[in-house]
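Example record

One chain of 336 residues, shown exactly as stored in the release files.
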Amino acid sequence: MTDAAVLSVVDVLVDLLEPTTLVRILLDALSKSALYVLIASGLSLIFGLMGVLNFAHGSLTMLGAYLGGAVMVALVSGSTSEPVQLLLFFVAIAATFAALTLLGGAVEMTLIRPIYDREPLFQILLTFGLVLVLDELARIAVELYGLQPRSDWQAALGTAPGFLSSRYTVAGVTTRGLYLFEVLIGALVVAAIWAFLTRTRYGLYIRSGSEDSEMTRALGIDVRRTFTVVFGLGSGLAGLAGVVLMWDPRFGASVPLSVETLLVAFVVVIIGGLGSFRGTVVAAGVVGLTDALMTWLFINHVDFAGLPEMVTFLVLVAVLIVRPQGFYGIAEVGGH
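Predicted structure tokens for this chain:
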């Protein structure tokens, strides 16, 4: 390594160790980690409890962004106060979650259930075909309403309250109020999923059905209905993530959001370990921190726009080499 290269590395390290730099990276990492756990939680739930690898997860997230945006655009006007805008956002979340939960339940009953006893390849091909159908329907719909499928829906972005669009100072670093709000939403969703799976009777039914469906049936529990509920909830969580992304300027509602979020979801779930919700939460933190650190490095020192994505996939490869099952992966998941 040349003297110039050594000096360059030293400069980067000195800049990185500045307290304000560390805080800036940490805040960015928390925001991205919250988004990543929102994006991946539904996929992790469905695969972890059912063993179904749902390739349509990204398309459901994209539909959630458009549905949530449609609710906000329809209900928010120039005279709507900021507290009411925030209240309507939660109305949009509830409506989108309910709609996609029903859609997911219908998909499980009509399309997924008949092929449970077949090879996993059938599930992959079926859900991939569903991706093509949903993405094309979304493209047709948004073009019909005069929207550009590949561009962020600006009208939906504009429904965010001013206090979330404003910047605030945290430990000497300015950040968007929206990013702090995303951290809060992510924490609430993780807590809600954990409480549902571990502290409710129906969560017990779900976990027992995934571990030993035959014994669960013998106890009088309708396992088929349980799996329908799981697939519906996973789809609803994908839609919830889409509503949150609809306001984020780094994402926004667009048809390509389908592929973008699907890749993120798979990276997080694979690193965390297929079948482990705890692994998904930890992996979201790792991926979020990696992304934030590499984004800072690109903005300040390295002239390569693809650096965050490249390093994230390198982390994925390294985990697969060192620990193929992921951080908390288990040998076998799901059961029908």
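Notes: The mean pLDDT is 88.
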